[in-house]
Specification:
binds guanosine-5'-triphosphate; alpha+beta; 27% helix; 16 helices; globular; binds sulfopyruvate; binds manganese (II) ion; nine-stranded mixed beta sheet; 22% strand
């Protein structure tokens, strides 16, 4: 029996961002013929279209209404409980040879994979609407900006993509009529949201992504991890730039001197929080501004590295967000926000673990069940998310739309490590910094399905996102140095070191300004440091800890290098490099030898 057509046709006047470009039209036709949707909806990203889709989503329970007085223009979405995070085991890089995908990616042969996916997509949109989303990644006037088209049968995806990207006519215009223009093809179908039929496949050579069987975040907002990082990193290497899992922030001194910093932390390890940092009282007059909170595209110009944020919004971790930890995020998500998998209070407000104030006496949890503070389950899923436009951010940097990007003074790598790695240190030089990034590790988090809290190597926070051979990626990083005359300084940070009592030693959040200040001082060659085997460490008086209530013992622990722990760490570096099967560049192997030697001095 044929499914009933959903009551969703673009009313006249909306849905008219249809390109004249024949190659796009042909591709959309091809997918429509295969997936057999009830109708095709060309998204234009207009307010009217958005209102229409929200109304439809509310009718079909894709969205749940919130108290519009408490959180104006905001809505709640509950995903399938089997579909709450990225799925690395079902993510594939489909290059012609396995070597091109390299030792860190799941690989599958492109021809066979296309055939399998076509089989799954056959008739998959029957009775559903097929949306075509034209979008750009990057400021409209940037040379790095890319055009993408995402086909999807999920209204939730359309609503998110409108916040996360610049959507509609702007992409159609940028693409133009050139049949050879570069653009990304993205196909997404929910199918039956079954983990057995969930595949996120990338075809870098074809600039194509096909994602089926999921409705969640990084699996389906194809602009983000799929295009901006996996396909992006592949294009970046080919075209001589960098696509990185990094936040970008501006930091301005009271005298008006401004630096920009890019920082790579793995998923759910503090990028959004760091990018929106509010300096503590002691740093009066200092200002931190956000350029981006997740992805940086960087190019070399006149010997310097310049970064743009390709995104237009934030898809951020909700739990732990409060006026105490991140006031800028709280203000950003107080209106015009899509919430996914948080709890719903009886008065139509949203709630999550770590929000300010007392927990509600009763709520509906992320699964739709009754919840009270006595419940064993969490009210909000640990990977519940907000989607909010970057324009909502009170700390948005004034140069966020600058096509040329912002000049980067420092690059920071940071993981979640309860031991071994000190609060902050500086690499000796670029090559040493690439080694630092290549060997970084972090405890896994709820942002991807699987074990949480397990230490794994996550080079440059790109382990799940590098779209080609990791050895070539390391080499690309090393090669960039040759084009830099004013290269960013490279640092490591770790906000997550714990004491014997199992508590974090460092207060984190706004107080991270103290570490950032040292980093800026080092960039200006004014900050003091002590040489250690792993890099330059702040001495006892180099970090400004004034007006911070912290035990000196804690500070000593935070900055200490335990030789036993580091012997284990260096062994693990070797094991990691060995596990990559000979793709690691010689220069990085030498870096490891030098590190070993420095510990023996
Ligand atoms: P993705 O969006 O998954 O890429 O995550 P992210 O790197 O942007 O991480 P985010 O800033 O959302 O932080 C993730 C979790 O780490 C949240 O629960 C935060 O509360 C917590 N967190 C962030 N910064 C700090 C910090 O400085 N110290 C401590 N202890 N926790 C932090
Ligand atoms: C991450 O996991 O690094 C995220 C969230 O930023 S997602 O978009 O789901 O990948
Ligand atoms: Mn991320």
């Amino acid at each position: 029996m044929k499914n009933l057509a959903p009551a969703i046709f673009p009313p006249s006047g909306i849905g008219d961002a249809k390109p004249a470009n024949q190659t796009v039209l042909d591709w959309v036709n091809e997918i429509a013929t295969l997936a057999e949707p009830e109708n095709i909806f060309w998204c234009d990203g207009s307010d009217r279209e958005n209102e229409f889709l929200i109304a439809e989503s509310l009718k079909q329970n894709v969205l749940i209404n919130l108290n519009q007085k408490k959180v104006p223009n905001s809505h709640l979405h509950r995903s399938d409980p089997n579909d709450v995070a990225r799925v690395e085991q079902f993510t594939f890089v489909c290059t012609p040879t396995k070597e091109e995908a390299g030792p860190t990616n799941n690989w599958s042969e492109p021809g066979e994979t296309y055939t399998k996916l076509r089989g799954l997509l056959k008739g998959a949109m029957g009775g559903r609407t097929m949306f075509v989303i034209p979008y750009i990644m990057g400021p409209p006037d940037s040379p790095l900006t890319k055009v993408g088209f995402e086909i999807t049968d999920s209204k939730y995806v359309v609503l998110n993509m409108r916040i996360m990207t610049r959507m509609g006519e702007i992409a159609v215009k940028r693409l133009g009529n050139d049949p050879n223009a570069e653009w990304n093809r993205g196909v997404h179908s929910l199918l039956d949201v079954n983990p057995e039929r969930r595949f996120i496949c990338h075809f870098p050579q074809d600039n194509t992504i096909i994602s089926v069987g999921s409705g969640y975040g990084g699996n389906v907002l194809l602009s983000k991890k799929c295009l901006a990082l996996r396909i992006g990193s592949y294009l970046a290497r080919k075209q001589g730039w960098l696509a990185e899992h990094m936040l970008i922030l501006g930091v301005e001194s009271p005298e008006g001197k401004k630096h920009y910093v890019a920082a790579a932390f793995p998923s759910a390890c503090g990028k959004t929080n760091f990018a929106m940092l509010i300096p503590p009282e002691h740093f009066k007059g200092w200002k931190v501004t956000t350029v981006g909170d997740d992805i940086a595209w960087m190019q070399v110009r006149d010997g310097r590295l310049y970064a743009i944020n390709p995104e237009n919004g934030y898809f951020g971790v909700v739990p732990g967000t409060s006026y105490k930890s991140n006031p800028n995020a709280m203000r950003s998500i107080s209106h015009d926000t899509l919430y996914t998998n948080v709890a719903l209070t009886d008065d139509g407000d949203v709630w999550w673990e770590g929000k300010d104030g007392d927990p509600p006496a009763h709520a509906i949890d992320w699964r739709g069940n009754d919840w009270t503070p006595n419940s064993k389950e969490k009210a909000a899923h640990p990977n519940s998310r907000f989607t909010t436009p970057m324009l909502n951010n009170p700390a948005l940097d004034s140069d966020v739309e600058k096509g040329g990007g912002v000049p980067i003074s420092a690059i920071i790598f940071g993981g979640r490590r309860s031991d071994t790695v000190p609060l902050v240190y500086q690499a000796f030089d670029w090559t040493n910094g690439v080694y630092l990034g290549a060997t970084m590790a972090s405890e896994t988090t709820a942002a991807a399905t699987g074990a949480v809290g397990k230490v794994r190597r996550d080079p440059m926070a790109m382990l799940p996102f590098c779209g080609y051979n990791i050895g070539d990626y390391f080499q690309h990083w090393l090669d960039i140095r040759n084009r830099l005359t004013n290269s960013p300084r490279i640092f490591s940070v770790n906000w997550f070191r714990k004491g014997v009592d199992g508590k974090f030693l460092w207060p984190g959040f706004g107080e991270n300004m103290r570490v950032l200040k040292w980093i800026i001082d080092r960039c200006e060659e004014s900050g003091g440091a002590l040489k250690s085997p792993i890099g330059w460490l702040p001495g006892p008086h180099d970090l400004d800890l004034a007006e911070l209530d912290i035990d000196h013992k804690c500070v000593a622990e935070l900055l200490c290098i335990d030789h036993e722990e580091w012997q284990k760490e260096i062994t693990e570096h070797k094991q990691f490099f060995d596990s990559l099967g000979g793709v690691v560049p010689e220069e990085l192997l030498e870096q490891r030898e030098e590190l070993v030697a420095r510990f023996k001095q």
